[in-house]
Amino acid sequence: xxxxCFGTGKAGGNVVEQLLRYERQLKTDFIVGAAxxxxxxADLDALxxxxxxxxxxxxxxxxxxxxxxxxxxxxxxxxxxEHRQLLExxxxxxxxxxxxFVVCAGLGGGTGGPTAAVIAERLSELYDQPVYGVASFxxxxxxxxxxxxxxxxxRQLVSATDHVFGFDTASRVKDEDEPVSEETYDTLDAELAxxxxxxxxxxxxxxxxxxxxxxxxxxxxxxxxxGGGLATLGYSERPLPPRDTSVVxxxxxxxxxxxxxxxxxxxxxxxxxxxxxxxxGQLTLPCDIGTASRGLLVITGRPAWLNRDAISQNQGWLExxxxxLEVRNGDDPRPDADALxxxxxxxxxxPPERLTALQAVADGDDPNDA
Length: 370
Ligand SMILES: Nc1nc2c(ncn2[C@@H]2O[C@H](COP(=O)(O)OP(=O)(O)OP(=O)(O)O)[C@@H](O)[C@H]2O)c(=O)[nH]1
Ligand SMILES: [Mg+2]
Known about the structure:
Elements: E1 3-8, H1 9-25, E2 31-38, H2 41-45, E3 55-57, H3 60-63, H4 72-81, H5 83-86, E4 100-106, H6 112-126, E5 131-137, H7 144-160, E6 163-168, H8 182-202, H9 218-225, E7 230-239, H10 247-254, H11 264-279, E8 294-301, H12 308-322, E9 327-333, E10 339-347, H13 353-356, H14 358-362
Parallel strand pairs: 1-2, 1-4, 2-3, 4-5, 5-6, 6-7, 8-9
Antiparallel strand pairs: 7-10, 8-10
Helix pairs in contact: 1-8, 4-6, 6-7, 11-12
The structure holds guanosine-5'-triphosphate and magnesium ion (MG).
Residues 9-10, 38, 40, 43, 67, 109, 111 line the site of magnesium ion (MG).
């Protein structure tokens, strides 16, 4: 699935940078264009992969390039006033080649959350492609302004997009009460980018050989995400045994005999173990998966390991676990892969309790006082 990505605010820019990094690492091409919008000049300058002419500094009349320092009301006002400028990076981009827009932000601050909602709204008005949000936030915040910004921005982003991928960073750090370092944010955003990138790259049919009934395509991703709401991503990646590197093995591949012989029991059990691992304890947004309305199971790895029976069985298992009859599955064969990955997308999940509990923090009730 080809995507055009926006990153708003500091966190949003970082998520898009990590997506670009993952795309490079995978040596694939699913990002049609990438842009960043921020009110802090220094954070835009610190970006490395988003092209300079696709970085938009706005709100300069109010902040002089220093950012809104968590004042989301003023951030929203500036984004609405300067919405045309925010979309300028799309002017010269091949938008018709993209299947969807992806707007990424960290919620809780003054710029990213409100700006992501404004951009998403404008994109939906102007283009036919679906608009997906990526929202990183922390449910461990005890700061009432951060909590109320998070909840408000999430509501706005859900209503302005076709779906929002939620990422609760509190579920991914060792000590929730410790401030998160830049390095940790890089690690977390890279983890999120790997999941999103696995999904987008899977929906990217590149060669004629890839076209098969079992391969995921962009429309399956869109169908999984139709109807709107909040989505969570589960993921498990484990190394595969190395390919036969003996002289005979290499010679066979050289003459085009690429078939790898794989133990069927081993390949089945890997898919089953990893599907369960992806869903149990590895969700970007820990939640009650029984509330999901739709799902998608994507298995990535060398073709011989993509055991169709196991994929169908695990699709059935996911249907049982979610109570949804709309779980799709597909594979993404990568002949050079050294790992097997299982990605589970669950759409339309109910907001978890940890998220709704932020309302009390927003209202000024510090949970630590309880
Ligand atoms: N995922 C992620 N989250 C971050 C990062 N940096 C900060 N955050 C968190 O994301 C939320 C928004 O922070 P920022 O992105 O810095 O804020 P902003 O949108 O730039 O808004 P202002 O700076 O207040 O104008 C906060 O709750 C931060 O704790 C990052 O690099 N990655
Ligand atoms: Mg900022």
